[in-house]
Amino acid sequence: MSWLAIDTTGEHCTAALRLPDGRDHVRSDRIGRGHAEYLAPLVEALLADTSTPATELSRIGVTIGPGSFAGTRVGVAFARGLALACGAECVGISNLSVLARQAGPDGPLAVLHDARRGEVILQVWQDGAGGATERVGLAELADRIAERGGPMCKVTGSGAALLPPGFTDLGVAVIDPRVVLAMTGELDPKANPPTPFYARPPDAKLPGGVAPA
């Protein structure tokens, strides 16, 4: 059976397919916005190019953020719907875990996502295991990394550029679809549901001040 991996949390709209013989096929276009209109035709073209019926997909992995709010919603909703339609398992994959994998096994490592408004999403990795995520203000970020990861903690991710000099930035900030593919097959779908991980609650409110789900 084949695996499909989807990432729409950034400027790229990406779909990657691993065939039963181990070959990978990737289609990734930098579109900025408009993932909702672009994703379905991209996946359709990828499946057609490889002569892979959707019913042969056994797993669908999707990055769940943190990243673009709209893009994350699009990717997760599409992955859920396609998995339901073709009877595949659906796996949610944290962007922070993907970047940690790409950065390599040496630790400790702080993966940082720029959450804007003077805040960063922080997750510290030790011995291949990620700790709890938290939203941290820039004024306290350096001290928080030292507290959780120690003085030798390396950093990576989109938020690393916001740190003062003195940290070792590994420079990994772009999701590698082949890593998402590998994690799609490795992770337990029951322990990693496709649930969006947003950097912050949405600003928009429904009538009556209710936050959208």
What would a concise description of this structure say?
The protein is an alpha/beta fold and 213 residues long. The chain has helices spanning 35-49, 69-86, 95-103, 138-149, 177-186; strands at 2-7, 12-18, 24-30, 57-63, 89-93, 109-116, 119-126, 129-130, 134-137, 154-156. β2 (12-18) and β3 form a beta hairpin.
Strand content: 25-35%
Q: Which strand order spans the largest sheet, edge to edge or round the barrel?
A: 3-2-1-4-5
Provide the helix percentage: 25-40%
Number of helices: 5
The parts where pLDDT drops under 50 for at least 5 residues are: none
Characterization of this structure:
The protein has helices at 35-49, 69-86, 95-103, 138-149, 177-186, and strands spanning 2-7, 12-18, 24-30, 57-63, 89-93, 109-116, 119-126, 129-130, 134-137, 154-156. By secondary structure, it is an alpha/beta fold. The strands form 2 sheets. It has a 5-stranded mixed β-sheet with strand order 3-2-1-4-5, sandwiched between helices. Strands 6, 7, 8, 9 and 10 form a 5-stranded mixed β-sheet that branches. A hairpin with a 2-residue loop joins strand 6 (109-116) and strand 7 (119-126). The radius of gyration is 18 Å and the shape is globular. The mean pLDDT is 93.
